[in-house]
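Minutes, structural biology subgroup

Action item carried over from last meeting: produce the structure token record for Glycosyltransferase family 4 protein (Plastoroseomonas arctica). EB confirmed the sequence was re-checked against the source entry. Recorded below for completeness.
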Amino acid sequence: MTAPLRILMLAHNHPDLQPGGTETIARNLFRTLRDTLPGLAGLFLAATTGAQREPKPGTLLQAAPGGQADEALMWLPHFDRFFLSQADTQGLGMAFGPLMDSLRPDIIHIHHPLQFGLETIALLRRLAPRGAKLVMTLHDYFAICPREGQLLRADGRLCTGPSLDACHHCLPTRPASDLLMRQLAIGQAASLVDALVSPSHFLRDRFVAAGWDAARITVLPNAVDIRGAPAPHRALPDGGRRDRFGFFGHVNRFKGSLLALDASARLSAAGVAHGLALHGGAAHQSSEFLAEFKAALAAAPAARHHGIYDAAELPRRIGAADWVIVPSLWFENAPLVVLEAFRHGRPVICGDAGGMAELVRDGVDGLHAPIGDAEGWAATMRRAVQEPGLWDRLVQGIRPPAGLDAMARQHLDLYRALLRRPTPARRAPRPAQQRQPEAA
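Output recorded by EB:
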């Protein structure tokens, strides 16, 4: 009989404190593995800061929300977002030493270097039991884009990858030495990992173009909880149209909330009846952005902001929408909102590039709109409202997304395959800073 695995899973926050996509995927994967493998020993360890929790004297470790014995928090406030570096290396060592001695994991799965820092990868490699394997999921472009991982240039244009000149143009106050040191540190940390996971082919290809080894990156798609009945489609009055749009996600500049409001305002000015509901909080946004959002909301008479929501509320809120829109200004990777929309039978309108366009098939289960182009978005939304039979045809084309059990099985297969073979020679990604990326 195969012995149960021992797994340590790290995420840069806990979804009960910060309900982001990476945190949700990481925790769902861990919990599903625990249900799939009776007797599995493991710990889900989420970073936290003073934004969510106060420190506890004498330790970085805290109990996680919900009271789960196999979930914990690690308080890590001293983080440098540019260098992805955690300054409290002494605290890391004091916390991880006893933890690793107690758990002795076979698999250590890191879902993001944010908060933990690249130092944690090196520390875990050193403390890991002989034969243990390290896995890291590349949930976004932080490792190749020093501008908050957005792959967006300073002028708002999409960037296809790093180069010294282009990165310096986006971050003119950073000397070239900082950019190069960042890349070298990330490459060294990545070389200590036994396998890299990407939720999309698009993200994998961006990393390969930046010099990362394609053979080390496995594409394992994200998944959502498919238990329970999907939200029924909205009942239409006689002669009614499928003209209700829903935005679900954090309200910030990069997610495209201002673009959505601009497109809605253009539709209203053209006399196109519709509704736009924005669902999501706006925590940690600048006063400048919040002022812009308030003004844009006031200028879009058909739009309403319904505020933050939790997972249990999603079916009710999505039930009022005919279409789910993903107006992000950046490439995205594999946004969960698309999978949630398909889970509930809603066609998706999204940007025409990146991981979101990989998930949404234009004219089959959704529509593509030009990224960052409010006029183009208004035209696409107008088509969605006015083209006869379009909504019904796209609904018929939706493929239900995979469930969490399927995602857990794929990861389990990867873990077991890694444990059957010796640790391969590790090679840092080759420097790609001298290439000038082409404009998207």
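Discussion: Residues 6-223+405-420 form a domain with the Rossmann fold fold (CATH 3.40.50.2000).
Next step: EB to file the record with the rest of the batch.
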